TrEMBL record:
Species annotation: Paracoccus seriniphilus
Keyword Transmembrane helix: no
SMART domains membership: Ami_3
Pfam family, one: Amidase_3
Annotated protein name in UniProt: N-acetylmuramoyl-L-alanine amidase
SUPFAM superfamilies: Zn-dependent exopeptidases
GO molecular function: N-acetylmuramoyl-L-alanine amidase activity
Gene3D superfamilies noted in UniProt: 2.60.40.3500, Zn-dependent exopeptidases
GO cellular component entries: outer membrane-bounded periplasmic space
The protein's Enzyme Commission number: 3.5.1.28
Ranges in a coiled coil: none
Every MurNAc-LAA domain range: 231-386
Length: 401
């Protein structure tokens, strides 16, 4: 019996242990932000947040000549992700990351002046672990970098050899201003939802076009467009993303803040039936004429298309809500929700509905009519769209490898 036990033990030792999957950086949940103002010629305080797919051992320190923040992470892999896509990367002279040595990756942040690490910690609760590093500016005489900068900077990662995407060539976005014409949408305080979202959509179009994005508008004036036709307009325009804009109303005190809605996957079966009965068969999937196909096969093909588009829509929602929060835009208590809205049914285009705020809430309504707030919101949404597109392109390149 002892021999049997020994043989079993040796067999177990011979079984290869699967290496733990490398932690990946969730670029949409990561950022570098300014947390205050710089006084008396000093640079502003900064906060670096790194959202990871799992918690990892890490260490942080500052070196001099010039001032740099070093973040070493064990078991992390940043390949295929460009540091230029980090939200807030423009706040510092440069950021780069890459493999440092076997099993370790390194992030180097060139700082705009002397800093000290105020705090650093890793939150491991929840679905997405997060490392947060707070940096405070200091006077030159109080700057205390690590003594051996040369040792710390040895094996510094070179910039990643990735195709650089300055803007988003080829990206087309469909903007859908809700309601219109004889349908004014929600009304409160002398304002109509249809007018407010159309004005926002027109401003967002200008911001996106300035970034090299082609924009398709489902309506560009005070006209009524059927819900089912809005999806068709987006598809005919070759849209890579469909974003519907609203500013709804609910009883006082029940809702405030921006909210992103995605398609409710539990409604897929019902949605397939509705789409099949309401659309021509050649207007259901881009590039696919389903004329002559039975309803069951059509539904299967549409569900198959959603296995690609739904995760991409969810990724966009993460990009958008994280950036809204980082820029101080008030969010609903549940910023991402699901619903069976008609404009989200398209199986072949990643789709989202953005409630800019609730016209029934006094604060939200004041924001929606404030040009300064709208300009800030437009900038955040535009940056979220282009950042999402760059992230999707990077993921696609990795899949091709």
């Amino acid at each position: 019996m002892r021999w049997i036990g020994l043989i079993l033990a040796l067999m177990l030792l011979a079984i290869p242990v699967r290496a733990q999957e490398a932690a990946r950086l969730e670029i949409g949940a990561s950022s570098l932000t300014q947390t205050g103002r710089g006084w008396w010629g000093k640079p502003p305080p900064l906060e670096l947040r790194l959202g990871l797919t799992r918690a990892v051992p890490y260490r942080v320190y500052i070196v001099g000549d010039p001032a740099r923040l070093i973040v070493d992470l064990k078991g992390a892999d940043f390949s295929g992700i460009s540091a230029e896509d980090l939200f807030g990367a423009n706040l510092v002279p440069a950021i780069r990351w890459g493999r440092y040595r076997r099993g370790w990756s390194r992030i180097v942040v060139e700082l705009p002046g002397p800093y000290r690490i105020e705090s650093a910690g890793q939150r491991t609760k929840g679905d997405l672990p997060e490392i947060t590093i707070d940096l405070d500016p200091v006077r030159e005489k109080d700057f205390a970098p690590r003594a051996s900068a040369a040792t710390a900077l040895r094996d510094l990662p070179e910039p990643a050899d990735l195709p650089q995407i300055d803007e988003t060539p080829g990206l087309t976005v469909a903007l859908d201003a809700g309601h219109g014409g004889f349908d004014p949408g929600a009304e409160a305080g002398g304002e109509e939802e249809a007018d407010l979202v159309l004005a926002f959509a027109q401003e967002l179009r200008k911001a996106l076009e300035a970034r090299g994005v082609e924009v398709v508008m489902t309506r560009d004036s005070d006209v009524f467009v059927r819900l089912e036709d809005r999806m068709t307009i987006a598809r005919e325009g070759g849209a890579d993303l469909f974003l519907s804009l609203h500013a709804d109303a609910l009883p006082e005190g029940q809702a405030a803040g921006a909210t992103v809605y995605l398609w409710n996957s539990r409604a897929n079966t019902r949605a397939a039936r509705q789409l099949v009965t309401r659309h021509e068969r050649d207007d259901l999937l881009l590039g696919q004429d389903l004329s002559g196909q039975d309803d069951a096969l059509t539904g299967v093909l549409m569900d198959f298309a959603r296995t690609d588009t739904q995760p991409r829509a969810e990724n966009f929602a993460r990009f958008l809500t994280s950036r809204l929060a980082l820029m101080g835009i008030e969010l609903h208590g549940r910023p991402v929700q699901t619903a069976a809205f008609s404009v989200l049914k398209s199986p072949d285009i990643p789709s989202a509905l953005l409630e800019l705020g609730f016209i029934s809430d006094d604060s939200d309504r004041a924001n929606l009519t404030n040009p300064a707030w709208r300009a800030r919101m437009v900038d955040v949404v535009a940056e979220s769209i282009t950042g999402w597109a760059r992230d999707e392109a990077a993921r696609e390149r990795m899949l091709r490898r």
